Amino acid sequence: MITGAVLGDRDGIGGAAPLDAVERRQLDIVRRWGTVGALLLAAGSLGAGAAPVLSPLPGTPVLGLFARMPSATLAVAWTGIFMIVSAWLWLGRFARPGRPRLVSRSQMDRTLMMWITPLVFVLPMFSRDVYSYLAQSQIAANGQDPYELGPATALGVDNVLTQNVPTIWRETPAPYGPLFLALGRVISAVTGDHVLPGVFLHRMLALVGLAMIVWALPRLAVRFGVPEVSALWLGAANPLVLFHLVVGVHNEALAIGLMLVGIEVALRRLPVHNPGDPLTRDELLWVALGAALITLGAMVKLPAALALGFLGIIVARRRGGRLRDLLSVAVFMLVVAVVVTVATCFGTGLGFGWTETLNTAGTVKSWMSPPTALGFLGGGLGLLLGLGNHTDSTIALGRLIGQAVYVVIVGSLLWKAFRGRIKAVNGLGAGLGAVLVLGPVLQPWYLLWAALPLATAVLAKRFRLVATAGSAIIAVVLPPTGAAFDGRAYVLPQAVLGAVLVFAVCLFVARKHVGPLIRKDPLPGAA
């Protein structure tokens, strides 16, 4: 899907020379290494993926064997993960900002295609959220209100779609925006109760979002002084994108894609060299269109709305950077956002019920969220000191403190961006990171909200090193099953040990080819 105009054959390498003959051979090895990893991950999904409850695979000849060998199949999947992550790290050597020779845009695009293609047809992995998408979309397709009813109530506990939803979410209403559920309603009208076709079409929707990301990242990078292939490498080729947006089928792909495209569209006609001049009608139309796209992204997942504030800062500074410019632009952005939101809510027929279900995810008390973890710690201390169990209260307090802190952080970033102390897109990335890290729930793929905007504007070696290491570590430590191993926890260590041994053997067999990649600058940003 990501072809043609989206993945063109442009060699925009920011003035750097193309790779030499030796490096092109090494790039070919990296491509094949990552592609083999993607194929192994696809094979592993047959037994280690988040398969539907009534999966046809166990009774299928040959393919059914994977589900009967959980440890071996999980080891295959994890070996694929190791190979993809290592290939990404090696690819980063050829996309590092400041390098005299960089991979070309067309070479980066072909690499992305080679790695993504095997992942298009895999079973969901790393999460079971797509099954919630299917159930909530079917509720909407039935003419019921997905913001009032959960799958168990609306569809029945025996419904095949309900059975695939994790137990904790079967009674909860949808926390997603009306645009996403309207698109899901179309998918449900086509697939009905057929789970696997529904998953596939939702993945196609995620790939549309990824195509938007691939289109917007290099264009924004050029605007903010980053080589486009460096932005694509840290952004679109990031293992967290491949694993959680493509394989995991998360709707962040569509929301972030609309947000980034909206920013790029809004900036296409803005004057750069003559700040202070009034904006023409044509320029205002492009800004309005960009703001509308960002608002549509928020109608998928609300965090995209933060981009309106930082886009407004850019426009206000281009108009002259006065407080009255900021105020007038803020009113303009607010009007666009309100019009698009109202039109979406009424146009989809789903109304404004989504505003009452935004805290649905907060019903889960996960230690991965720092404020929630702080609340658990406070509750534990209370028990230890004999003060009683006040864990719920301390979690609520911790979350309230987290919200207050991220409001202050976002406000500070907006002001600094307005005063020109930081790039607005950097402020957007940092602000989204603060909102999601300090929010009531934190999932690994939430980090992409911050990483993708920052990939377009940050050249600092320290940031890119931290982002690289963080992405690689998170990518390899998360089990690909999307499920717990209650009663059979031994499967995980067996699978990891097997994957490590197989990966080590692969490195040994291919040592003549991958040796130079390992010895020379494997981490981008390293000195």
UniProtKB/TrEMBL annotation:
Principal subcellular localisation of the protein: membrane
Subcellular location: Membrane
Membrane disposition: Multi-pass membrane protein
Keyword entries, A-Z: Glycosyltransferase, Membrane, Transferase, Transmembrane, Transmembrane helix
Taxonomic superkingdom: Bacteria
Transmembrane feature ranges: 33-54, 74-91, 112-127, 200-217, 229-250, 284-314, 326-352, 372-388, 400-418, 430-451, 463-485, 491-510
UniProt GO cellular component terms: membrane
GO molecular function: glycosyltransferase activity
Pfam families from the UniProt entry: MptA_B_family
UniProt family annotation: Belongs to the MptA/B family.
Protein name as it appears in the record: Alpha-1,6-mannosyltransferase
Native source organism of the sequence: Actinosynnema mirum (strain ATCC 29888 / DSM 43827 / JCM 3225 / NBRC 14064 / NCIMB 13271 / NRRL B-12336 / IMRU 3971 / 101)
